[in-house]
Amino acid sequence: MTQFDVGLIHRLADQMEGLSSNIKKHVNSPDELSDDLQQLTSILNSFQTLTQASKNSGSYPIATENDVR
What we know:
By secondary structure, the protein is mainly alpha-helical. 71% of the residues lie in helices and 6% in strands. Strands 1-2 form a two-stranded antiparallel sheet. It is elongated and about 45 Å long. The longest helix is centred in the middle third of the chain and has 28 residues.
């Protein structure tokens, strides 16, 4: 059974947050926006792949004392 990697989800979310902040602060051209959107799309695809793999294997995160494993 594949373990649902919550740590990886958090890292991807942090990357998404950084890219979103970058878009708000630094995007000055369509090319820059396109590059950031490609990265965001990649992150979203990773979320979807991880979610689907976990659903298919029947694994879900385990919460113990507010610590998700």
